[in-house]
Amino acid sequence: MTQPVLEDGELPRRKPRRLRLSPAGVIGAAIVLAAIAVAAFGWAFAPYDAGAVIDTEVFKPIGAAFPLGTDYLGRDMLSRVLLGARYTVGIAGLATLLACAAGVCLGLFAAAVGGWPDAILSRTLDALTSIPSKMLALVLVAGLGSSTPILVLTLAFIYLPGCFRITRALGVNIAAEDFVLAARARGERTGYIMMQEVLPNMVGPILADFGLRFVFVVLLLSSLSFLGLGVQPPNADWGSLVRENISGLSEGAPAVIMPAIAIAVLTIGVNLLIDSLPGRRREGH
């Protein structure tokens, strides 16, 4: 079927889908926004300093004075969970943003240029993808250290190839559309075509991929922290809180369960949100 042509001879662009969230998506968005708010302003609501020992009784049960009990040193778990959100959400969010930004730029470049630059990028990043993410993270963190900047860069490096692959695949498919071919025929530059014609039509799948990468990064960061290679004391993310209190699971279960629930709720919320994004069911990966 022939597409309609505008008066100036230009083919109409495909309109990006509007963002309409399902009820589950609204719940997911609320959870994500709440997690971001806690990460940004949790310090203002924390009853105590994260490292302050405020009770001589360790693994104190949930009560009016300590809504989430105390940990293995007698520190308030509510304060530790609130303040730990900035590391879990902050590190994971920044790492995912870096990975997706670099992956989108490289993917668009490969889709636009093609030829040997595309082949070199694709084969190199495919080789990185073949290495298990947890194994690569352990090697990099053990060799470079586990400071916050190193964790962010390591996690971004690990998940960059996946962002590149989906962007390149989407870019190649959209670049074959009639409205893109018409733009090439008009003499538009490659940069203009990629940024103005191709990129706006892949926003939905890229947002869905961003959400998935964020979940993967949260789980990998929590795994590293549980193994003692993530966020280091006196700071702690949710994975660190599980690790440092695991020995008291039988007598102080809230100190272990509450950070684990926070991780689970965050990942479920992100999944609910991305499942309701436009094009997720048909085009998402």
Describe the protein's architecture and organization.
There is one protein chain. With 285 residues, this protein is mostly helical. It has 11 helices and no strands. Helix 1 (23-45) crosses helix 10, helix 2 runs parallel beside helix 5 (148-175) and helix 9 (238-245) packs antiparallel against helix 10. The two termini are 29 Å apart. Mean pLDDT is 84; it is low at 281-285.
Report the β-strand fraction as a percent range: under 5%
State the end-to-end CA separation.
Answer: 29 Å
Give the helices and strands as they follow along the chain.
Answer: HHHHHHHHHHH
Going by helix content, strand content and strand pairing, the class is: mainly alpha
Helix content: 55-70%
What characterizes the major β-sheet?
A: none
Q: Main attributes?
A:
mainly alpha, 11 helices, disordered C terminus, elongated, 0% strand, 285 residues
What's the short version?
The chain is mainly alpha-helical. The chain has helices at residues 23-45, 77-113, 115-129, 133-144, 148-175, 178-185, 190-198, 203-226, 238-245, 253-275, 280-283.
